[in-house]
Design goal:
The chain has 273 residues and is of the alpha/beta class. It has a single domain, classed as Alpha/Beta hydrolase fold, catalytic domain (Rossmann fold). The chain is built from eleven helices and eight strands. The longest helix has 18 residues. The radius of gyration is 17 Å and the shape is globular.
């Protein structure tokens, strides 16, 4: 996949790297942690070949986009504003929105806060934000608490040639690319700020009031995901007012776009087409 179609778009005080490929119905691909638009390297050429225009940004703090220093800069509503600004800059009124990991969290929220901008929604791995956490999910998400320890988390992750990250990835994902990206000044803290802004422990209370998702929504989870409980993705349909479909991919790790590109591409073409 060529990366010569990338450009910088100014959004809410940061410069975001954005790739724009093809023509046709627009599809916005939103990656997660600690990836970049390169996560979608098997999806972009496939969707372009099937008549879609594909927009793939690097989220703020990750990849080739700016890394603002404030933790609050990584709150999910800021990322939703980034995505709508990108669509504005490219002259796109509404797009199909596909998100993985934190990108799925952004996509869910975008479908609720800016439903006029989302034609169809595909959430990969991460469920609707209001689905209650299972005890299994609490167990799987232990690392989210560890990431809250500013300085300690950074030092631990980088220690001994990034040994923690190597063990955490279990051999999956784009490990060498992550280490290269996160080794740049301020990059690891910026990446961890996604967790500090959105998943820091809070006092229990009523959940926020969010509108039901009206866009037709496809939820995808993989049985080899070591970080997310698939039961919650299955239950996400209860928060979708529009058409809902759940698909499970066997044996793929959390990084479905890399592990099962053929299956994912088939699902995307069927749903978005």
């Amino acid at each position: 996949m060529s990366t010569d179609e990338g450009r910088s778009i100014q959004a809410n005080g940061v410069s975001l790297y954005v790739e724009d490929h093809g023509s046709g119905a627009p599809v916005l691909l939103i990656h997660g942690w600690p990836d970049s638009a390169l996560l979608w390297r098997h999806q972009i050429p496939f969707l372009v070949a099937n008549g879609f225009r594909v927009i793939a940004p690097d989220l703020r703090g990750l990849g080739r986009s700016d890394r603002p220093p404030e933790v609050a800069a990584y709150a999910l509503p800021r990322a939703v504003a980034d995505m709508t600004r990108i669509l504005d800059a490219l002259g796109i009124e509404a797009a199909h929105v596909v998100g993985h990991d934190f990108g799925a969290a952004v996509a869910w929220l975008m479908a609720m806060l800016r439903p006029d901008r989302v034609s169809k929604l595909v959430a990969i791995s991460v469920p609707h934000p209001l689905v209650p956490r299972t005890m299994r999910q609490h167990e799987m998400a232990w690392y989210q608490l560890f990431f809250q320890f500013t300085g300690v988390a950074e030092a631990t992750i980088q220690h001994d040639g990034w040994a923690w990250m190597r063990a955490f990835s279990r051999g999956n994902g784009d490990l060498d690319r992550w280490i290269e990206d996160l080794s740049r000044p301020g990059a690891l803290t910026a990446a961890l700020n996604w967790y500090r802004a959105n998943l820091a422990p809070r006092m229990p209370g009523p959940p926020p009031e969010l509108l039901p998702v009206k866009a037709p929504t496809l939820g995808i989870w993989s049985t080899g995901d070591d970080y997310l409980d698939g039961q919650r993705m299955q239950e996400s349909g209860g928060y979708v007012a529009g058409p809902w479909r759940y698909e499970q991919i066997a044996d793929a790790s959390h990084w479905i776009p890399l592990d099962a590109p053929g299956q994912l591409n088939t699902l995307l073409l069927d749903w978005l087409g």
